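Reviewers of the previous submission asked for a worked example of the structure-prediction workflow described in the proposal, so we include one complete record here. The input consisted solely of the amino acid sequence. No template or homolog information was supplied to the procedure at any stage.
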Amino acid sequence: MSVFKCKMCGGSLEISEGMKVCECEYCGTTQTVPSQKDENIQALFNRANILRMKSEFDKAEQLYEKIIQNSPDEPEAHWGLILCKFGIEYVEDPATFKRIPTCHRTSFDFIIADDDYKEALRCADSVQRDIYEREAREIDRLQKEILALSAKEEPYDVFICYKESDNGSRTPDSAIANDIYYQLTNEGFKVFYAAITLEDKLGSAY
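From that input alone, the workflow returned the following C-alpha cells.
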C-alpha cells in the first residue's frame, strides 16, 4: 500500500494497488493520485506536494520534472507541473468547507493549450481525465476573473512580496512587510500589501 499526501490539505492518503483516484478522509476531496510503486518516486511526489502547498512553486516544479525524467507517462507529474505553473493552492472555503483552488500566479496563456496539460490527459485514464478537465475549467475561470479584475484596477506604486507564515507561525518577514506598508502609506504611496489590500477577500476571490 502506498502513502501519498493529499494535494488539497496535506493529509495522508492510503492508496491500494491499482488505484488512480481516491477520496481524502480529512478534507473529503476526490482526487487523482500517482500510480507509482517506486518508493523513491513516491517520496519525490510527497516532497513536491509539500513545497507547492508552501507556495514554493519553482522548487516543486524541479521535483515534478525529475519524476517525468524517470516516468514520462505519469499523468500526476504533468498535472503537478500545471499546478506549479499557475501557482495553485487549495484553500478551504469558509462557506462550504470544500477545498477550492486559489491562483498565486497569473498567466495570459490558456491552461488547455499547455503541453503538460495535454500530456496529463494523454496519459490519464477516463476517470482521471474527467477530474483533470473539471479542475482545468475552474482554474481557467479563475485566471479569466483575475485578468478581468486586474484590467480595472488602478496601478500601485509599490507591491510588497513576502512569506506570511511558515509551519503555521508568522514569519519575521511578515512583521517587516507590515512596517514597510504603513511607512510607505504614510508617505503617500499606493501600496499593495495582501494582508490589508485583500483582507476582505476569501478563497477563490482572494
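Strands lie at 2-5, 12-15, 21-23, 30-32, 88-92, 99-103, 158-159, 165-166, 169-170, 191-192. We consider this example representative of the routine output the project will generate in years two and three.
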